[in-house]
Amino acid sequence: MRSNARLATIGGRSLRPKHLLIIGVLSLSFSVSFLVRSQAAEFGFELNEFDPFFNFRATEYMVENGIGAYHAWKDPLSWYPDGRFVDESSQVMLHVTAAVTYWIFGGETTVYDFTIIFPVVFGAFTGIVLFALVRVMAGTTAGLFAAMLYSISLPILIRGPIGWFKSEPLGLFYGVLTAYFLISGLKSKNRPIAAAKLAAAGLFTGFALSAWGGNQFFIIPIGLFLVALPFLRSDHKFLLWAIPLYSVTAIAAMQPFYRVVNYFLDGLGALAMIAPPAIAVACILVQLVSRSHKRRNGLILLGGILVGGPAIMAAGAGDSIFQESLRYMTVINPFLAGSGTLLSSISEHAAVSPQQSFLFHSVLMLFAGTGVWLVTRHIHTDKRGFLSNDMLGFALILGMAGVYVSASFVRLEVFASISVIILASIGLAALTKYFFRTDTKRPIRMLVKLPYAAVITVMLATPMFFPVGADLFSSSSAPPTILNGGASIGIVTNDWLDTLEWIKNNTPEDAVIASWWDYGYWISTMGERTTIADNLTSQSHHIKNLARMMMLPPDESWELMNEWRADYFLIFITAHKLTSEDPYYLLRGGGDESKKQWFMRIGGYNVNDFVESDGISGTDRFWNDSMLGQMIPYQPVTYVNPANSNQQSPTYVPNYIGLYEKQVKLPADGDGPLRLAYASPGYTTEHNAPIIGVFLYEVNKDYVP
Fold this sequence. Notes:
Oligomer: single chain
Helix content: 55-70%
């Protein structure tokens, strides 16, 4: 059958074999992405990580009370006693999109179950939108490669599995959709359609920024691209209204979102949204009025702006613009990495190592580099060139910006992934066009095509299976965090779910529960109780006081708890029993016993006062004179040297490992500052497996220091 043979006619359009191929590849991309993201469901159908629990509760509130009530909602369960204005501090479009799609498609499904599957659906759909973007840039072949590469991208998959009702999956969907409408609008020859697409790009820019604050890093390559456009294209009269149309629409679309206006437009975002179109228009006008040396005059103006603008801002005119949070300034200036203790304590804000970068992108780096080399050297089969200048410029700008911004935080590797995927898909398309060209004899073409296809298939499939244990399927198959507390030990239990259910059913409805901020959203959403701090981390003084409560001597800690009106204090401990006969345990699995160093740093303490030289074992001061040491229901017994026949010492010796035995120091019937109100089954049931223990202590209001 000829490749262009007509199969059917639908609505006046012909259906041909190539259309079936496109549909098949996109269906495969969606299915692979959906199935790989859904692997975690085998452990339990629960929301994953921490933020999704608040996002679920906010979405549920909107579904039950309407969008108007949501905008006026002050959540009383967050940040006691202040509460939280949800509309001003949340990814509003995440909640709006989830609520609207639930009203349309939810049916009899609960909101909880709907939000579990929500990121999988939108994450998989993003591959189709990426196909559309790359197709506009570099053709259908490149678009199909992009869709398939997206479906198996490790950084994207691990930031959007089932239950990951966080900002990234929907944020990337809106971000890529923004880029598609912008590029498609700029390439459209029909001016009314171009205007509609550019306006849609502006609208989705506002949606993207509201759905995920990280999307403001999409603004960087877009701004650079707008500045470059007057030198990449000659249709200046079109650009003269097209560029401002996008920018004005985008700024207008941001206005309904308090957080975007106050935390983006009221800072560097204003510069990013206003300066590039203004510079582009100025360069266009200079070229239009110049009789000769048009491009040179435009470049002179651009150079003057690039030199003079920063100089003026450095002199103090732009001081107010740079009042940005450390999180975002670290991305702009990577040398700030590690300068914020609270920021550094968050694992997803760790810097990306070369090993991680290679694991994430591996062979795609080769194809991306090949794509850059081929398209810039004009290796193509048609006379028009493989990429137009503006599309080549956008691909290169996006690639460089994506790699740059992702270098600061692991969670931003999704931007490097999008950039590398686009460049790699262009490279693969260029190679495919080159090896499948029609200017050679048929036998020679067959000898070239088959080895090429085999080599490409093997190279693209390799990261799916190697390295063993860190391959695509292993890395994306992990239990929801609430089933192991985020512990590093391989265990799945209901300890957290049982604890939160106990809290909901056995504590007063107005109870205030203190805990490390990691667990705040779980307590307020599943336990339905008020917390002093949660995962928003917007009020750092609350978090510092929680750290102080844990590290202060028990009497002083009790006084601070009462000052903050805490009724309970919750801690999370992981342990591993050595043998069924021995009563000894190891404590180092990712619970509060492993986070204590961060409590000390954030609380303003000297870590060396509480931790031995190995950076793990607690000192006598920690175990005897800190509230956390008293709350941990274990006590060191001996220290052993595993490298020397388990030689023992009653006190800490470098290179020795501490062994612990169970000991509740603040029992339920005691008269101390706290009383153990609940211990999860993982602790109370004797077994030889790793232990996850969640402990809830009631503040003894009658205690006398």
